[in-house]
Amino acid sequence: MARTLPTPAAPGPEQTRGVMAIPAFARLWRAMAFSSLGDWLGLLATTALAQQLSGGSYAKANFAIAGVFIARLLPSVFLGPLAGVIADRFDRRTLMVVCDIIRCGLYVSIPIVGNFVWLYTATILVECVTLFWSPAKEATVPNLVPKEKLEGANQVSLLAAYGTAPIAAGLFSLLALIAGSLAGTVPFFASNSVDLALYINALSFAFCAWTVWGLHEIPKGAAAKTAGDVGVAKSLLEGWRFVSSSKIIRGLIVGMVGAFIAAGAVIGLARTFVGDLGGGDAAYGVLFGSVFTGLASGIAFGPKVFAQFSRRRLFGASLTIAGIFLVLLASIPNLVIAVIVVVLLGAFSGICWVTGFTMLGMEVKDEVRGRTFAFMQSLIRVTLVAVLAISPLIAAAVGQHTFKFQNTQVSYNGAAITILIAGLIASLIGAISYKQMKDRPNVSFWSDIASALKGELGSITGATTKGLFIAFEGGEGSGKSTQTKLLKKWLEDQSHGVVLSREPGGTPLGNDLRDILLSHKTGAISPRAEALLYAADRAHHVYSVIRPALANGDIVITDRYFDSSIAYQGAGRVLEPGEVARISRWATESLFPTLTIILDMPAEVGLGRLKKFDRLEAEPLAFHERIRQEYLQLALLDPERYLVVEGQMTVEDIHSAIISRVAELPALSKVPKKEKVSRRPHPLRAIAKVSKKVKK
């Protein structure tokens, strides 16, 4: 008997309402969005001010701008854990209000004092204050939203943090354009858009302080401690122990470090690069906004556009392409083309960013995930500080150069050359990451792209689960039911919990659909209606049986799954297999088996084993041959996820081939084992017993 799990209840309407419907959280979110907008505006203004204060010196401008970024990063590298611990001892609402007031005052003071020393001093102080504000905010959010809406709250919080960057860039460019007209009526600004931007930033923090002061829903008790008692050095050491044990995680870490090397070079040299191309503050704002517009587009649309592409391949490929665009950016001395290239660069960087963090969350076990992310964050901070410190040295060492070719004159300066080097490094690291995580060695990269864009591939990595998912496929009479039972018995003898199911019919609803789909009484069914009915059965099967079992740490074995629809309704009914695949992907939320076992034999042989025929089995021989060929084509496309076994071998030989492949699955060693509740018969006796039944 296969173990069954209770059907989870459908989510109620109170769970499906948007998190923004919660008044207290909505008010906090508006304050966060406005302060994030001001903070991005302040970043643009302080880097532009640093460039202005350099007095026209190319080397000094590079060092000055990099100094702003280093000043913003250093406090979090050294004081982050300490600030988090101290912040836990204060009343959250009061702490957030005081921090916002201090930040407001510091940003007002920067244009008033107007020198390098205070620019860096104020920037460091602002970041130190932010280190107290951030943990108070993070601890506040779980108290304002229900637990089931916390993920949604975090998503819209990230939108407030990063989605405001393009808006800030556009506003900064607009301020640069209108500052001249304001100077005529308000001489105080003296055509200086930077001062105006800094005052708006200060205003945003004042608004945030006023909003938070009115949020009496924020509890007065100290926040629960968040991760952060571990220093940078210890995080790096402990994180490396876990990272070094996995080839996939090593590839992810190497790739993400490469991405931030490239990002650090671009961020640190963007203002100088724009100046080299003849642009001012407005052009700097446009270029800055283009980066984040592309980044947001890549994060929002990249996973959808490349939904069928292997995430492991997508990560390395997107990083490599971003590096190529970075090289292209450094090679084209044209501001308009640079903006276009930067949008594309940002898009592929966004794909790399979201894919990398998603993969890291999926590949790392829950018990070590915190330390791995702490290692990643510490490594990123150290990398950014190092790159921001080194890149201006390279740019300043190269200096400014002008090349003349007959009547043409081209200027190629240190910023462009440094960006070129960063692009080459990013491309190289992307290629190394791709090789580290290459999950389909027998399938060419370009054929993978073509299949993914056609929707015929299917994603290779989905959300990680505690369990293991194995599907059996094949034509009629191929012996799937026999082999699923034998595999279940073998796995249970290895102390694994196993859930055996089938399609259609793995649930009470599935049994009703099975009667409709296979009974001769139903009569003719439209091929498209048939495909949709199978998809409906599969959606409920995944929701009520497969996912709960996987979450419980069991091994799920299903007799037929995804590929049956592609073969039967796609090839057999002469529909488009890619369209049928897309329906099933949507129905199952792209839950793919770790291994799909296809028992292959000529259709005529399989049908000859049957004593009676249901509605599908009674179809002509040509129908079943098309199904067989489609199965073989699927396996040929993705040999790593499929095992094709000759179905005309003996039951024992087929079982031996199957368990040999299953035993090699890396995921099998990660599946938790269960206590044995009873002594099971010897596997060879079970095989002999089943074999006798088959012969009869």
Examine the coordinates and then state which fold CATH places here, giving the name of the CATH topology of the largest domain. Rossmann fold
Which percent range describes the beta-strand content?
5-15%
Output the structural class: mainly alpha
User: Which homologous superfamily in CATH is the superfamily of the largest domain?
Assistant: P-loop containing nucleotide triphosphate hydrolases
Please work out how many helical segments DSSP would assign. 26
CATH class categorisation of the largest domain: Alpha Beta
How much helical structure, as a percent, in the residues?
Answer: 55-70%
Structure description:
This protein is mainly alpha-helical and 696 residues long. The chain folds into three domains: 23-229, Growth Hormone, Chain: A (Up-down Bundle); 231-460, Up-down Bundle (Growth Hormone, Chain: A); 465-695, Rossmann fold (3-Layer(aba) Sandwich), CATH 3.40.50. Helices cover 69% and strands 5% of the residues. The protein contains 26 helices and seven strands. It has a five-stranded parallel beta sheet, with helices on both faces. Mean pLDDT is 76; it is low at 1-17, 221-230, 456-463, 677-688 and 692-696.
